[in-house]
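Hello forum,

I keep getting stuck at the same step: I have a sequence, I want structure tokens, and every attempt I make locally crashes halfway through. Rather than fight my setup again tonight, could one of you with a working pipeline run this one for me? It's a single chain of 225 residues.
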Amino acid sequence: MTAAQLALRLALPDSATFGNFQVGANGALLHALHGDEPFVYLWGGPGAGKSHLLQAACHAAAAAGAAPVYLPLRDLIDTDPEVFDGLETAGLVCLDDVDAIAGRTDWEPALFHLYNRVRDGGGRMIAAGAQPPAGLGIGLPDLVSRLGWGPVFQLHPLDEEGKTAALRARARARGLEFSEDVATYLMRRFARDTHSLFALLDRLDAASLVAKRRITIPFLRELLG
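Reply #2:
Ran it on my machine without issues. Output:
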């Protein structure tokens, strides 16, 4: 599968932009992603926003006339590492879930060589994983060093106020308006990581359309118990 075919298959969600990302304590990371750093590595736990930022970087690169590629490695691990072939010609390569290839003697060398080709071609790469490079469990030492070629950032989770703001911003982007009281109600009763909150928002959006009702606390009580 060529990089062009992958780019068509792995369409980016329109909602993933820098504009609707709640920065919180991640200002230095956002500055690096907006800049000309050839290599950036970011890490954090589930729901921290890693995929959002990689996809946002691709949207920004495409808007600037580049040809970015976003690859979620966890979804590709059962394919062939030849998917990396030719990616050095992309304007930006964003690799998500790098920890998925840890211990894979077929994928680790392939990613190592991709880093070298991107560097030699003057390209840019942003990679993300659940841990810093040294903690990923990667067996190829040279690949660990490649992952740390540029700045390495921990993606700090949002505090409760930031998550509430992120939830309401994501709702507004979908044409939904609900009060701060509704956002607080959701935050107190459901999982607070942004991934779970945004998945819940998808459910609420669909339910409000079917019921033709606004999202209010009485509606939430009926719907969610």
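The chain has two domains: 3-154, 160-224. If your local run keeps crashing, start a new thread with the error log.
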